[in-house]
Amino acid sequence: MSNVDWSTLRQEALGRFTLALLPPTMQLPALPHAVTLFVQKVEDPTTSDKDLARIIETDTGLTFEVLKFVNSSAIGLRQRAASVQQALTLLGRRQCKTLIMTTGMQAAVRARQSKLIHQRSFWNVSLQKALFAREVALLLRADPDTSFAGAMLQDYLLPVLTNDLFNSYLKFVDQRDDQPACLCDFERTQFGWDHALAASALAHRWRLPDELVCCILYHHGGLGVLKHAQLGATPVAAVALSALLPDQLRQFDGGLAKLRMLEEKWAAFDLKKLAETVDAKQAAMGLGIENDFPLSRIVQSSAEKSATGNQRTTSQSA
Question: Domain 113-303, CATH 1.10.260.40 — does that match?
Fold first, then answer.
């Protein structure tokens, strides 16, 4: 178990930032009531699995997602769940809590259509990052479930922000090559805050665990998180590495190059193997969503471009 003081880290990172600093015209998503109630009740040992199941079953979408997840081939359970209560028993409360939180937050955001982000591609990449973070967590001997949830939710507020502040984010996309390497740097210049601060402040308002809030808060910490005295072997580090993977907005320019640098220093970190594992597990989940951009193909293409660039540099200097 980690001895990290997550509450203190969350307070220090959020500082004086509050959601009141966001534009007053912005409409923040609301977490489904069933999710809020479940998160409150699941830690109470006097609450039975039957009572928890009843809470989930008040929301049709949550019920469907829980059953789909627990019965997917990616989970590998021998027994199939025919009810939410069976799913709770098979998954365990801890993993079910993680699933309910991620599913609920996605549902809160999916209702808001972004003019800048393609929803299917966005959630597809979010799942890639989540699966990647889980594999990295296993290498770090950190909690894989929290790593998965943190990576899945690291950018959950971007569809809302890019829609409500469309012109500013469009400037970032249209002039990407002239912008800072990290989207957060651009946001802080434009707004005085970034999407990590906004998303984690909202997650804290929703009373999500401080460890998960910190995963969102620090997700653009890059490789430096690995050297952090408290966070280097926690889910936060796994999520920070997943944030270096490419996405629609090119949030972290040169992220794959950073991961290749890490590969040279960390023998257990095999980027190609990790990407292949992510693709296999994503396919095994059977979500019915075509994966147009497999991570292994992206990693291979990036490696080839890097090799070509190095060859040109060598020939020019010869």
Answer: no
